[in-house]
Amino acid sequence: MSNNQIKDDPFSDEHAYQAQPDPNITKLQKSLEETTGLMRDNIRKKEETGELLDENVQLTENLKLTATSFRDQSKKVKNQMWKKNLKLKLCLFLVILIILAAIIIPIVIHFSK
């Protein structure tokens, strides 16, 4: 390349040192950098939100399984307690019946003579 072509090339380093930066271009570059930063922040937040959603879905599934297990176990315990309560009531009824029989039978025998 000739020396004359280098001076006319707007992209050469020599030309860059001579040119004054245009304030509009500087503002535009600054605005572009801010916008790029905001977009990167938004993408990062979106990724975090996606991760949180995946985590929440997993926690929800675990909670559903735990709730189902809890329901089944509580039904079993309820039935066991119902049976225990029924046995207790039957035993109490028999004890009261025996006590009444022990009281009534001697009285009936005494007055029947």
Structural notes for this entry:
With 113 residues, this protein is mainly alpha-helical. It has one domain (21-112). Helices cover 90% and strands 0% of the residues. It contains three helices and no strands. The protein has helices at 3-8, 13-18, 23-112. The chain is rod-shaped, with a radius of gyration of 46 Å. 0% of the residues are buried.
Q: What portion of the residues fall into strands of 2 or more residues?
A: under 5%
Please give the largest β-sheet. none
**Uncertain spans:** none
Rg result:
46 Å
The pLDDT mean sits at 84
Shape: rod-shaped
Essential attributes:
113 residues, mainly alpha
Give the secondary structure arrangement, pairings included.
Layout: H1 3-8, H2 13-18, H3 23-112
